[in-house]
Amino acid sequence: MVSGMTNLATLRLSNNKLYGPLLPPGQPSNLLGLESLHLDNNMLTGTIPNELLRSPLLKVLDLGHNHLTGGIPNWLSGLSNLRILILKSNGFHGNIPNEVCHPQNLAILDLSQNDLQGLMPRCFYNVTAWVDGTPKPHIYGLKQLFNYIEEVGFADRNQRNRSLKNRLNGDIPEELGSLDGLHTLNISRNSLTGEIPKSFKGLRQIESLDLSYNELSGAIPHELVLLNTLAVFSVAKNHFAGKIPVEGQFFSFNKSSYDGNPDLCGYPLERNCRNYTTRDEGDEEEEEETSWIDGPLVYYCFIGLCYASGFWGCLGLLFFNGNLNKAYFEAIATAISFLLCMAIKFKRFFCSLGRSR
Hints:
4 helices, 21% helix, rod-shaped, alpha/beta, single chain, ten-stranded parallel β-sheet, 357 residues, nine-stranded parallel β-sheet, Leucine-rich repeat, LRR (right-handed beta-alpha superhelix)
């Protein structure tokens, strides 16, 4: 009966005990005017029927917390007006198809708590809602009326309540750093490896960044201190090492943001970075600023100055007074010896200063 309501714009049947397939077998859908479909928190089974393509105006599709299976359909690219796609807490498996990037206005994508695996798609820069940071209009969505936030989620959230978890692996795509309209990125509880891309400094509007419970390593990029809007940050349970940045928003994050990374040091942790040999990029930049102290230039300039002073001092004295006695020459020799000793001491002092920093 519902499938014949061609002018129906919003269908909300969330939090019920509906079971069976989304559409009865062999029954076509004629919901031509449907814009918002909410069937979350039910017991629906089967796959997502491609009859939804007959609803070209669909903007919100929330099928979260059901028992749906199969792969993420490739034909979702045909829903060009789709803005919110929530498929979390189901039994979807396989790789994430690149077609999920095709709806240009997609603002919220939540595929958490499924059995997805493989690499993260590198096509997200095609989604204009995540790339340009322009304000978006109000639409009907998960709440009655709200200003929706650009979000990407592949995390395994509330793991205690579900046995399934995503198993995305490989490196984090550099392309994610170009999504300057993104507000939330949650890719926690996967098997991602490698380092945090330095391109993440381009996430100019990011407010929440959760990379916890992965296999990430390396240093926390110093470039992330440029993210002035970042309010929530977690890299817990990874293999990061080196000094934690303490500039900008990073000064406000507590210890829990870094739990489970024994090679991290610095504030807010109690581990002193002087006891660790691993250094982040900020340390390397600091070393570059002071490396001239350790170099031979200062040492040889000092030696040259001492030599020139002694040499021209001797010549000057000999020129103005030809009757200098032995005491004068001994005094000059003593002065030169003193300057050479001072040069050696200064060299050792500057070297130790550079190493301590």
